[in-house]
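In the laboratory, one determines a bound structure by crystallizing the protein with its ligand and collecting diffraction data. In a computational setting the workflow is compressed into a single prediction: the sequence and the ligand go in, and a structural description comes out. We illustrate the idea with 2-acetamido-2-deoxy-beta-D-glucopyranose.
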Amino acid sequence: MKKCSFGHGVTTGFIALFCATLAICWGVNERKLIKRKAKFFQQNGGLMLKQQLCSQRGSSENTKIFTVEELRKATNNFHQSRIVGEGGYGTVYKGELADKTEVAIKKSKVGAQSQTSQFINELVVLMQINHMNVVKVLGCCLETEVPLLVYEFIPNGTLFSHIHSKGQAMLSPLSWELRLKIAAETAEALAYLHVDITPPIIHRDVKTMNILLDENDTAKVSDFGISRLIPQDKDGLTTMVQGTLGYLDPEYFHSSQLTEKSDVYSFGVVLAELLTGRKALSFDMPEGDKCLSKFLISSLNDHRLHHIVDSAILNHENMETIKEVAIIAKRCLEVKGEDRPGMKEVAKELARLTNIMVKKQTWEKVDFVSGETQNLLGESSAPHCLDIESGSSACITAGYNSMQSQMLMPYDDAR
Ligand SMILES: Nc1ncnc2c1ncn2[C@@H]1O[C@H](COP(=O)(O)OP(=O)(O)OP(=O)(O)O)[C@@H](O)[C@H]1O
Ligand SMILES: *[C@@H]1O[C@H](CO)[C@@H](O)[C@H](O)[C@H]1NC(C)=O
Ligand SMILES: *[C@@H]1O[C@H](CO)[C@@H](O)[C@H](O)[C@H]1NC(C)=O
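The predicted complex, in structure-token form:
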């Protein structure tokens, strides 16, 4: 009897001890985990970020600091099947938050320390921005070893994939009207970054890979990974030339002197890509034609524009606006930054051309319905005498001048 109760007591004791140990271990583990999260949060600049959020009341309202659990749930624990893209700086996952919002979650590559500051930098820059044609940042998570950025999800893919995936069943070639609209919207976004916000922002990596299309084919400029605020000390000298080959401003490449005009150059390459359907660098071309910017300019100088325009968009109706856009592209690609137009001017020109196309389409529909055959644009007001070499668009501007004021209206909403 005695022995038995003793044995019972020992067993109970052991069980209690075991449970206690387990609880302690679990507690320690949990504390460790919490500590780890807190450590990462601090390492990743969480406090700096919180301060910034507090001081910028306006943007903190729509920016959120997410927990890891939230983002794990959103991405099925960062499952492989959720990966939508891989860039130079990391991996992009598609996720769905508890409230059904679709998000793109950007995870920096593990290891390189310098990328942490790049991430925080991207975040702080993006939080200031609220523009229809710029990808919105919804928040971030700093509790992981590498910080995560949460963006609105842009469903229709990159402009690059739409231009260069010809022949693939999924994508039909973009119409000239749509290319022009996308160009105008991208220019709007860049003009906003350069002129409308203080201090101005240079994107630094303008390329078709970084222009996303939403469900309504609205252009959204993304990837501010290497954008930084223009240094206030005016000299603009930066330690490292960053950007993508084929889009890189040659002047910036040689001088490391960064200005808004570097974005203008890269945007010129984007225009060239939209016009020709060719990549910024084509390794299968002969030596002199590898670089699209050079190829476009030499073709323009040799009066061969219609030979190099993407056959998917080349037709009689489009030719006038195609020529005008080619002239804009050429000006953007000037060797000297000071000879390039500002982004505001480019945006205005492209908005005007977009509206001409839209108007033209509407008139063609009206003509069709009413049975009228008269061409409202009038042959006389659509000049054939374009002098591409002079780089002047005065001839065409005069022809369309009267329509301008009303046509620019819709674009005022975007600002
Ligand atoms: N907000 C988003 N919505 C939907 N897809 C996105 C979003 N952001 C990025 N992606 C996808 O993820 C891919 C990688 O994007 P990311 O910006 O990281 O790299 P990148 O632009 O290709 O390269 P780099 O970072 O070197 O400039 C993109 O090409 C795009 O397909
Ligand atoms: C974008 O998505 C919408 C809706 O899914 C589709 O109708 C449209 O054709 C797509 N645009 C492009 C350029 O693929
Ligand atoms: C796309 O257009 C429709 C109809 O105009 C609008 O209701 C919807 O909000 C738009 N989607 C986006 C993402 O802007």
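The two ends are 89 Å apart (CA to CA). Keep in mind that any predicted model is a hypothesis to be tested, not a measurement.
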